[in-house]
């Protein structure tokens, strides 16, 4: 399918690896020029060079921490005119409810709620002026069904979801859509970190931890960054203009809900 976005420009946050990289890859394959962001310059530059070589698109890199106000300003200034924004940031560490203090919640909010909102506020007005734009926020399945040990993520990402629910409907009439992708377990560093916690807690091997988690997913496996990226690219396409303020689960059926 021709997504109809060749020649547009996308800012993809946290895109040197994992789900962010999957989104960048799928957009590049569709002919979209990229502004890629991550904290580590080395991995970011390597990913950017590969996408330039494979897809022949323009790729600019901005190595900053998007969770900070300084990083956001640098990224916004460097990005310039953006048609597509993919918000993404690593999730807060797991833990128990009684372990977190105010500083833990502030850090989670900065990375997973306030940073995406800052980029939306900075970049969406120009999209509205041009009459077209796409915003996709990578959140988590936990906003539909909370995960006990991910209370920081549950809180911050659900806050962003509430913001998007109202904002998306206010900007849709200008040709700009805002939607959320809710990943379950995918084969990324985040999954490795969570599985490592299970290894430590249960005294089992990593292979056993992965088998146990996969057995809880109706699809029987972890997701891939490639299929996640394809879903992101579709939401960014010309064909998705009537999809507004939605929360799309990509979890292999793991979230046991009806609606």
Task: Give me a quick take on this structure.
The chain is 47% helix and 14% strand. It has 259 residues and is α/β, with parallel strands linked by helices.
Structure description:
By secondary structure, the protein is α/β, with parallel strands linked by helices. It folds into 2 domains: 9-184 and 225-250, NAD(P)-binding Rossmann-like Domain (Rossmann fold); 186-222, no CATH class. The chain is 47% helix and 14% strand. The protein has helices at residues 18-29, 41-55, 69-79, 102-130, 151-171, 189-202, 206-215, 225-235; strands at 9-12, 33-38, 59-63, 84-87, 133-138, 176-183, 247-250. A 7-stranded parallel sheet has the order 3-2-1-4-5-6-7, with helices on both faces.
Keywords:
259 residues, alpha/beta, Rossmann fold, 8 helices, globular
CATH architecture of the largest domain: 3-Layer(aba) Sandwich
State the name of the first-level CATH class of the largest domain.
Alpha Beta
Q: What is the 3D shape? A: globular
Helix/strand-derived class?
Answer: alpha/beta
Write the layout of secondary structure elements.
Blueprint: E1 9-12, H1 18-29, E2 33-38, H2 41-55, E3 59-63, H3 69-79, E4 84-87, H4 102-130, E5 133-138, H5 151-171, E6 176-183, H6 189-202, H7 206-215, H8 225-235, E7 247-250
Parallel strand pairs: 1-2, 1-4, 2-3, 4-5, 5-6, 6-7
Helix pairs in contact: 1-2, 1-8, 4-5, 6-7
């Amino acid at each position: 399918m021709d997504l109809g976005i060749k020649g547009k420009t996308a800012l993809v946050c946290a895109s040197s690896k994992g789900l962010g990289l999957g989104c960048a890859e799928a957009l590049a394959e569709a002919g979209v020029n990229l502004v890629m962001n991550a904290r580590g310059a080395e991995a970011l530059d390597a990913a950017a060079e590969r996408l330039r070589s494979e897809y022949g698109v323009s790729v600019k890199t901005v190595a900053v921490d998007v969770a900070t106000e300084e990083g956001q300003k640098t990224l916004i200034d460097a990005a310039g005119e953006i048609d597509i924004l993919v918000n993404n940031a690593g999730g807060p560490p797991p833990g128990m409810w009684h372990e977190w203090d105010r500083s833990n919640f502030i850090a989670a909010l900065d990375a997973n709620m306030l940073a995406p909102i800052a980029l939306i506020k900075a970049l969406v007005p120009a999209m509205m002026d041009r009459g077209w734009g796409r915003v996709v926020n990578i959140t988590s399945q936990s906003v539909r069904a909370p995960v006990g040990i991910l209370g920081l993520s549950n809180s911050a990402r659900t806050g962003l979801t509430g913001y998007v629910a109202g904002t998306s409907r206010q900007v849709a009439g200008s040709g700009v859509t805002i939607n959320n992708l809710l990943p379950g377990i995918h084969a990324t560093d985040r999954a490795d970190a969570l599985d490592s916690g299970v290894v430590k807690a249960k005294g089992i091997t990593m292979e056993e931890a992965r088998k146990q988690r996969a057995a809880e997913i109706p699809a029987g496996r972890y997701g891939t960054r490639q299929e996640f990226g394809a879903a992101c690219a579709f939401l960014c396409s010309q064909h998705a203009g009537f999809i507004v303020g939605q929360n799309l689960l990509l979890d292999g059926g793991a979230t046991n809900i009806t609606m």
